[in-house]
Amino acid sequence: MAGHVASQVVKTMIQKGINVNNSHVLMLGITFKENCPDVRNTKIVDVIRALEEYGVNVCVYDPWANPEEVYHEYGIKPLNNINDVQNGELNNAPPSDHSSLITDHLFDAVVLGVAHNEFLDMNLDALKKDVSVVYDVKGVLDSNVVDAKL
Question: What is the DSSP track for 65-124?
Fold first, then answer.
């Protein structure tokens, strides 16, 4: 499934004329399931790794996950606060390869990986570039804002 999701995101980016290599993708969610802090056995990490194999820089935000646990288990440092990105500031974000690669604070793609309640009404326009991709792994977002879904 992870390889399929990654290839669909990349394919949709290419169809929209987005350069995939060194692009920036925001992964919304890393926990095992929605509205739960458990990161054990999460398949989202496999999607992140598959996207990275395409040369994509993936930044992760999950309000439910413990950032220290995510780093300990998977070596990924998620953003502490999505407002850091929405305000165009990454000062409060942990230093990591993921967050330091964001040059203009907007993403080439946003992938909803976990259907946390916080994500359902989120203003994705504040996070993405004008030409971008929104991919919905869970099929819960309004079809008007989604470019592709699983």
Answer: S-HHHHHHHHS---BS-THHHHTT--TTSPPSHHHHT-SSS-EEEEEE-S--HHHHT--G
User: Quick one: tokens of 2?
Assistant: 């992870």
Whole-model pTM: value is: 0.86
What 77-83 contacts at long range (C-beta under 8 Å, 24+ apart), as own/partner pairs, is: 78/30, 82/122, 82/127
pLDDT digits (tens, 9 = 90+) for 27-70: 999 999 999 999 999 999 999 999 999 999 999 999 999 999 99
Instruction: For the chain, give every domain's residue range.
Output: 2-149
Instruction: Quickly count: other Cβ atoms within 10 Å of residue 41's Cβ.
Output: 8
Cβ atoms of residues 12 and 148 within 8 Å: yes
β-sheet bridge partners, residue 110: 26, 134
User: Which CATH fold would you assign to the domain 2-149?
Assistant: Rossmann fold (3.40.50)
Residue with token string 């409060």: 92
